[in-house]
Design goal:
By secondary structure, the chain is an all-alpha fold. 56% of the residues lie in helices and 0% in strands. The longest helix has 22 residues, at 85-106.
């Protein structure tokens, strides 16, 4: 799935339990951090026509951070810095695995390639997670999941009085929520 969908799904998932703003942000990182290994896409794109293209995205996406090692490290950090340690750590762990599940079911490339998820790294490369019925990244189920997640994001803003915008600007969040409240 694309990073925007992962962000929205993570936001919706973290709002299932009561957490303060800071702990919500910490737990939500669990759904975003696996894609940090996608940063190689930019150098790959910029060098694709050169004599020595960098294939960092093709070689390392799903390899470096889509694994239990990253999950455990992130969960330990989340527990260490959160106010509600156990709840925030549990949500980080859950949302991280939700990201992996989403990638397993809906991230097949246009060429049919399934990025396997080396779940046990860095401890073992023996187990690669894939699903034979994985749909393409641009398939309708991903669009539907994005639309539903966006709708839930609006619903949470209406019900709870804050939105995903709280992570970037309190003022923007307040204006967004006020606008939703006026419309509904």
């Amino acid at each position: 799935m694309n990073p925007i969908t992962h962000l929205l799904i993570s936001w919706c998932a973290v709002n299932v339990v009561p957490l303060e703003k800071r702990d919500r942000a910490i737990a939500m990182v669990g759904g975003i951090i696996p894609d940090i290994d996608g940063i190689g896409a930019l150098p790959q794109l910029l060098t694709r026509s050169s004599d020595t293209p960098l294939t960092w995205f093709s070689e390392y996406h799903h390899l470096l951070t889509h694994n239990i090692g990253t999950c455990l490290l992130g969960t330990i950090v989340a527990v260490a810095i959160a106010k509600r340690r156990l709840r925030t750590g549990a949500m980080f762990l859950l949302i991280f695995h939700l990201h992996l599940l989403c990638d397993i079911v809906g991230s097949r490339g246009p060429d049919g390639y399934q990025w396997p998820i080396p779940y046990l790294l860095p401890f073992s490369s023996a187990w690669q997670l894939t699903w034979s019925h994985q749909w393409q990244l641009n398939a309708w189920p991903n669009f539907l999941i994005t639309i539903v997640s966006l709708g839930l994001t609006f619903w949470f803003a209406w019900k709870r009085g804050f939105s995903i915008l709280e992570l970037v600007s309190s003022r923007a969040d307040r204006v967004f929520v006020e606008t939703i409240l006026k419309r509904i």
